[in-house]
Design brief:
This protein is an alpha/beta fold and about 450 residues long. The chain contains 16 helices and 11 strands. The strands form 2 sheets. The protein has a 6-stranded parallel β-sheet with strand order 2-1-3-4-5-6, with helices on both faces. A 5-stranded parallel β-sheet has the order 8-7-9-10-11.
Length: about 450
């Protein structure tokens, strides 16, 4: 009898365990994560504190609040402190970083971009005994990589992480050539980092310099904001190419009228003005009409795991070649007429690669494939406006939730990979610093 009682008890416990396991598995299947039961359900960071007693310090004078804000958020939990002298005077109020530029000597938002080379020595002489700048272990240059030329005399590590075409502020054959020579010299020094946050700029820098930059995608994580699709309808991301975008909206509206569209599609700023991230994730998904090969908002949307609808590679190639959809892909296009070629020749190792600043079909076809939209998994691609309308009407909430969950799981692994890369980079910088961060 005693053995029978034990057997019955054991069966009851086993049955209860199986019910719990089945329920857990079912919940994860519903969320599209059948084989990832042990993955975290929230957006916890995988950061490990690297500098526990003395932080590693990075000084920056960036021209855009987005890239530096992303890096500060990502690296701070690893024991990194930033001295942020942000020069983005139009947007710095959004991140409360306007004060730093007020204490700068010699340079300001209006003269630092197109730097007068004679100022490099003057700047050094003004700051050589400055306590704040000497507390830095490295100088970071992101949205204006060339500003790092200003900091070379301080003999500290240079973190050149390009988020745009790297010749900004060094236009013209003479200045661009000089910048290339300096960049090649920086790359040869093991204490420095030459990188880009997107594959397009990785290959762009390589085309003109022969350097192999490190690819370090922006993480742009917002851990307290996750996809919830509570408001319904879809958003369309902001676009600065007003001519092409206006035509896109006009054609989309005409087609919708013919097809009697029932799905709402609203432009982000049109709906919310200065939106909050919680506004973005409350919608079913977001449509991107690219105006640039890499934008910070793409990283933000992807890291929040909101389903992204983007043009297929072939569609974007046709848009760019025939309609100049991404004017900002080149600096000439952003500031004037369509470019016909670069001011300088490619590096000898890149002679067989088409010029990225020339608008021939073969050139567009070669370079557009490096856009961010084709480097990340689980993006939903549309082949035409008609196809986009079909997707917005037929993709179910359950399918969108599964896509979002796959994006979230990719982000989880991506963060671990990026943190390991950054750990190695930061430890190398620390090794070369006289300040001994540890």
């Amino acid at each position: 009898m005693k053995n029978q009682a034990i057997t019955v008890f054991a069966l009851i416990v086993l049955f209860g365990f199986l019910i719990v396991c089945h329920q857990t598995l079912f919940e994860n299947i519903q969320m599209g994560t059948k084989w990832f039961i042990n993955e975290p359900r929230d957006n916890q960071t995988s950061a490990v504190l690297v500098f526990k007693e003395k932080p590693l310090v990075i000084w920056t004078t960036d021209f855009h609040i987005g890239p530096i804000h992303d890096l500060k958020t990502f690296l701070k939990p690893m024991g990194v402190r930033f001295i942020d002298k942000n020069l983005d005077y139009l947007r710095c109020a959004r991140t409360h970083t306007c004060e730093g530029m007020k204490t700068l000597k010699l340079i300001n938002p209006h003269n630092a971009q197109n730097l007068n080379y004679s100022w490099i020595l003057k700047f050094y002489q003004l700051y050589v005994n400055d306590t704040e700048i000497n507390s830095a272990d490295a100088f970071g240059c992101f949205h204006l990589p060339a500003v790092c030329e200003l900091y070379e005399p301080f003999n500290k590590s240079l973190i050149i992480l390009s988020t745009i075409r790297y010749e900004l502020g060094r236009f013209g054959k003479e200045r661009w050539t000089r910048w290339n020579e300096n960049l090649i010299r920086y790359a040869a020094n093991p204490k420095n980092l030459i990188a880009a946050n997107n594959l397009y700029d990785v290959n762009y820098i390589k085309y003109f310099t022969g350097i192999e930059p490190v690819w370090l995608p922006s993480f742009s994580n917002h851990p307290n904001v996750t996809y919830n699709h509570s408001r319904g309808g879809f958003l369309i991301a902001h676009n600065t190419n007003t001519g092409f975008f206006s035509n896109f909206i006009q054609q989309y509206s005409k087609l919708c009228a013919i097809k009697n569209c029932t799905v709402r599609l609203g432009e982000v700023y049109g709906l919310y003005g200065n939106y909050k991230y919680s506004d973005i994730v409350a919608h079913q998904g977001i449509v991107h009409v690219p105006y640039q090969v890499s934008v910070m908002s793409f990283f933000e949307h992807y890291r929040m795991a909101i389903p992204i609808f983007a043009p297929s590679l072939e569609l974007l190639i046709q848009w760019e070649w025939k309609h100049w959809a991404m004017r900002e892909r080149t600096w000439q296009g952003a500031h004037g007429p369509q470019p016909v070629g670069s001011a300088i020749k490619p590096h000898p190792s890149q002679q067989s690669v088409p010029d990225p600043n020339c608008y021939k079909e073969e050139t567009v076809r070669y370079w557009v494939k490096f856009c961010d939209y084709y480097q990340f998994p689980h993006i939903i691609y549309y082949d035409s406006l008609e196809h986009l309308i079909t997707l917005l009407h037929t993709t179910t909430t359950e399918e969108l939730i599964r896509v979002s969950e796959k994006m979230r799981l990719f982000n989880f692994g991506e963060e671990k990979r990026l943190r390991q890369k950054w750990r190695d980079i930061l430890l190398n910088i620390a090794k070369h610093s006289t300040n001994d961060p540890h």
